[in-house]
Structure formats: structure tokens, C-alpha cells
Write a structure and sequence with these properties.
The chain is α/β, with parallel strands linked by helices and 500 residues long. It folds into 2 domains: 79-283 and 368-433, Metal-dependent hydrolases (TIM Barrel, Alpha-Beta Barrel), CATH 3.20.20; 287-365, no CATH class. The protein is built from 16 helices and 23 strands. The protein has helices spanning 2-10, 14-22, 97-100, 119-128, 141-149, 159-174, 194-206, 222-236, 256-268, 299-308, 331-338, 342-355, 369-377, 395-410, 416-423, 425-431; strands at residues 25-29, 32-33, 42-43, 46-49, 52-56, 66-69, 74-77, 79-81, 104-109, 134-137, 139-140, 179-183, 210-214, 240-242, 273-277, 282-285, 315-319, 361-365, 381-383, 447-450, 471-476, 479-483, 486-487. The strands form 5 sheets. A 7-stranded mixed β-sheet has the order 3-2-7-20-21-22-23, with helices on one face. The longest helix has 16 residues, at 159-174. It is globular, with a radius of gyration of 23 Å. The N and C termini lie far apart (52 Å).
Length: 500
């Protein structure tokens, strides 16, 4: 009864919170602090001044400082999304609500080998037109390859072209990128020789950077793809991270243990290998990604993909400009409409889109819940969304609260402290962001205040942009950007450059 009254009393305080947050000088009292280090939760007051954490503990209260009552709630560091596409459409949605309402305070972009070049331009833009969240970025290998090779990319690069790519990487590392990202299942990176990627990783390492990869395969050639990533870490001497780690083939469901044992052995051998994972069994990409040989006449390969990697009824079009009426339909639906086998419909959808010069996007179920949970629980995995602001996949609006609801409260696969660590301090370590991710004096005051008993995602395939519940306030650099699911209008996000 007391808890219910307390929660009700907190609601009318929202307007007061906005005023206190805007002053950048306030103290949060009575909350249970989960500090992002993995240490046990504890009651403590936390004072914020000028965008930084000024005090934690019994000396945090100060006369004349606005007080925010966090009783019954958890105060955690703002969540760091280490694989985000929330920069897409960020100019039109600078409140970044799909991310910020989850408790995400920093997005790490330039993923899957993509992203804008030069990164100095991205930083300048975000400083001139800040968003509600902080933005850090990797250099995208595909973007670099496109800048050097243009339309003539369906081949191995020449040594001279690799040298030019190295120069582009070094220029952008000097500008403050976190490291190099690859999307080796996508054009044009799919045509790269491993030696090309190694040369760029070496250049990244010379500047103290990191390597993050959407690997060459997440299904039929998963082991070889992991081997390539580990060899980059071993030879180039830099930290390597597996993007959105998954087992995306039915034949290998249940095989997380040997994969994780392999990564643990690599870590014991001195390779700093880590991963990020989103808490869903379905991915979002394009239709072509299931055909690594890019032969859109190969009916046998299409039949294999639809039998082992994404069943026709689980492969749903989320973008199809060649025929917008197909959006929301599965490959099975399209096959039935056309009166053809699913594999034929699948290939025709790709070819018809290409003939019109139009891209596509699809969501497919390829993973098992138990595997996703096991990969998340690996001590060296952190949480990511792989989502965007206007996303047809619910991960764009729900990934982080889903972990708190599913992995902590519903299944107990993680403690609350472990989950927060994976969303904040561990995530910061994995991408090389030094001054965020922990509630420690001197760190940036990126914070999230939430109710551990009710926090949950609401985004679904049918309603992918539905915002979560249970998150009360999100602060970025000491300023509230979300109050009870509503943006405050504040835009305090910063461009985050690699610490030298």
C-alpha cells in the first residue's frame, strides 16, 4: 500500500523534476543505486552539478540544491547502445525518443561497415545541431571501400587501393572515431579479401582504436567468420567485438556452449574479444543477406536459406519500394498471392527490386530464445539494440527494457546488477568510452531512474515503435531529456570522440 501511494505521489513531481534537471545542480535521494560496475545495489544519494556526478553517498545532500525523490526506484548509469542505427533520421527527430525512452543516453553508430565520412563532419553536425543523446562513431569499412573503389567494387582491391583505404582510416581515426566497423555480409565489403580488412585493422590499432564486425557469416560459415575476427585481434593487436552475436541457422540451435568456449580460450590466449547482443530471435536486414554468393538465379540456394535460416512464414518485408503493398507481408504470403513456391517468390522479389534500382528490407526469425539468452549471459557480452528511430523492428524502441523485463525479472538469467553492468559500464569498456557508464564522482551525469518492478518493453512486430513503461527520468549530461516517456525538449547530447 505504501509503495503504491509513493508511486502515485511521484507522478505530479514530473514538472518539478524538469526544473531541477535544467538547473544542472540537484540531488537524487532515496533511490537504490546500481552503479554500472556490477557491484551490489545499495541505497545512496547522488548529487549532480554542471553535468557531472559531484557526490555519491552521505555527503551528497547540500543546502540550496533541488531534491528529487527516487524512493522505490533504481538509479543507474545511462545505457550505452554499442550497436545503434538511431542516427538515421536523427535530424528530423533530435529528441531521439525511441532510444532515450529506453534509458539510452549514448548511441554508437557507424555500424555494419556503414556510416558517414568524414567522421569529422558527423561530429561538427552534432555539435552544431545537438540531439537529446550523445553520439560516438566507428569508421565504416564499406563507406571507406565505396569512397576508394566506387561502383567497381565486386572484386578484390588492388594494393594501391588498399593503401588509399588505409589513409582514409587513419584520417578518420585522427578525427576521433572509436575504431573500424565492418559489414562483411553486405556489399561492397562482402567482396573484400581478409588481407584488406587486416590492413585497415592494423591502421586502426596504430591509433589506439577498436574493431567491431558484422562478420562474414552468422549461419553456415559462422566458425570461419569467428576465426577471421579472432585472427584480426591476434595479429593487429586490438580489441575485437562481434556485432549482434547470434546463431542464425536452425541446424546449430543449442550450440552456444562450444562457441563461447572458443571465445573464452581466445581471451585466455590474450585476444580481447567481446560481443554485443540484442534480446530478440529475429533480425532485420535485406533479403539478399541470405545468399552470400549473390546468385539470384540459384533456386537450390534459396530453398536452403528458407529451410534453414528463415522460414517463408517468418521472413517479413519491412521495406519494398518496388511494390509498397507487399510491406508487412511474408515471403509465404507473396508466394501464395503469386501462386508460386516460396523460393521462387523470394528470388523474384530480389530481382524485381534490383531491376528498379530499389532496396528492400526484411525481418526474419533465425534464432532460438535459449541461445539468445545464453549469448547475453556470457560475461563478455554487452547489450545493444541494432535499432533505429523509425524502425519496423521492435528492437529500435524496446531492446534495453526487454532485457530488464525478460532476462532479470521474468527468467532470472541475469541479476539486476549484471544487466545494468552490461548496459553501461561494460558497454563503455567495450567501445572505449572512458567518462560514462558508471555512477562515480567526476563521470558525466548520464543517468536513468526506473522502477524495476514494472520496467518493460511494449514494442512488437505489429506496433514496433511503442515506447516502454517503467522508466521515469533519463538525464544526459545532467539534463533531463525524458520524463515518464515524454521528451522534455532538451538537447544536451554531445559528440563523443575517442579518448587519446
Amino acid at each position: 500500500m505504501i509503495r503504491s501511494v509513493l508511486r502515485a505521489a511521484l507522478v505530479p513531481m514530473v514538472a518539478l523534476w524538469a526544473t531541477a534537471s535544467a538547473a544542472e545542480n540537484f540531488v537524487i535521494v532515496g533511490a537504490t543505486v546500481v552503479d554500472g560496475t556490477g557491484a551490489p545495489a545499495h541505497k545512496a544519494d547522488v548529487r549532480v552539478k554542471d553535468g557531472r556526478i559531484a557526490a555519491v553517498g552521505k555527503h551528497a545532500r547540500s543546502k540550496g540544491v533541488a531534491v528529487i525523490d527516487g524512493s522505490g526506484l533504481v538509479l543507474a548509469p545511462g545505457f550505452i547502445d554499442t550497436h545503434s542505427h538511431h542516427d538515421r533520421n536523427l535530424d528530423a527527430h533530435r529528441d531521439a525518443l525511441a532510444a532515450a525512452a529506453q534509458g539510452i543516453t549514448t548511441i554508437v553508430v557507424g555500424q555494419d561497415g556503414g556510416g558517414p565520412l568524414p567522421v569529422a563532419g558527423l561530429f561538427a553536425k552534432r555539435e552544431a545541431q545537438p540531439a537529446a543523446v550523445n553520439v560516438a562513431t566507428y569508421i565504416g569499412h564499406n563507406s571507406v571501400r565505396d569512397a576508394v573503389m566506387g561502383a567497381d567494387y565486386k572484386r578484390v582491391a588492388t594494393p594501391a587501393e588498399v593503401d588509399r583505404m588505409v589513409a582514409v582510416v587513419e584520417e578518420n581515426m585522427r578525427a576521433g572515431a572509436l575504431g573500424l566497423s565492418t559489414g562483411l555480409e553486405y556489399d561492397p565489403g562482402i567482396y573484400s579479401d581478409p588481407s584488406e580488412v587486416m590492413a585497415l585493422a592494423r591502421a586502426t590499432a596504430r591509433h589506439g582504436g577498436r574493431y567491431i564486425s558484422h562478420m562474414r557469416s552468422e549461419d553456415t560459415r559462422l566458425d570461419a567468420a569467428i576465426d577471421e575476427l579472432l585472427e584480426i585481434g591476434r595479429t593487429a593487436h586490438l580489441p575485437v567485438q562481434i556485432s549482434h552475436f547470434k546463431i542464425a541457422i536452425v541446424d546449430r540451435w543449442g550450440e552456444t556452449a562450444p562457441l563461447l568456449a572458443k571465445l573464452d580460450a581466445a581471451r585466455r590466449a590474450g585476444i580481447d574479444v567481446t560481443a554485443d547482443v540484442y534480446p530478440y530471435t529475429y533480425w532485420q536486414s535485406n533479403l539478399e543477406v541470405l545468399l552470400p554468393k549473390r546468385d539470384f538465379t540459384d533456386l537450390t540456394a534459396a530453398e536452403f536459406a528458407l529451410a534453414h535460416m528463415a522460414r517463408p512464414e517468418d521472413l517479413r518485408l519491412t521495406q519494398y519500394p518496388a511494390n509498397p503493398a507487399y510491406v508487412g507481408k511474408t515471403v509465404a504470403d507473396v508466394a501464395a498471392l503469386r501462386g508460386v513456391p516460396p523460393a521462387r517468390a523470394y528470388l523474384d522479389l530480389i530481382v524485381e527490386g534490383e531491376a528498379k534500382g530499389m532496396s528492400n528490407a526484411a525481418m526474419g526469425r533465425s534464432m532460438a530464445d535459449d541461445d539468445v539468452a545464453a549469448l547475453i549471459a556470457w560475461p563478455h557480452s554487452n547489450i545493444c539494440s541494432d535499432g533505429g528511430i523509425e524502425d519496423a523492428h521492435p528492437r529500435g524502441a524496446g531492446a534495453f527494457p526487454r532485457v530488464l523485463a525478460w532476462m532479470v525479472r521474468e527468467t532470472g538469467r541475469l541479476t539486476l546488477e549484471e544487466a545494468v553492468h552490461k548496459m553501461s559500464g561494460l558497454a563503455a569498456d567495450h567501445v572505449g568510452i572512458a567518462d560514462r557508464g558508471r555512477i562515480v564522482v567526476g563521470k558525466a551525469a548520464d543517468l536513468v531512474l526506473f522502477d524495476p518492478a514494472t520496467v518493460a518493453d511494449r514494442a512488437t512486430i505489429e506496433n514496433p515503435t511503442a515506447l516502454p513503461v517503467g522508466i521515469r527520468t533519463v538525464w544526459v549530461n545532467g539534463i533531463a531529456v525524458v520524463e515518464a516517456g515524454t521528451p522534455t525538449g532538451a538537447l544536451p547530447g554531445q559528440a563523443i570522440r575517442r579518448a587519446n
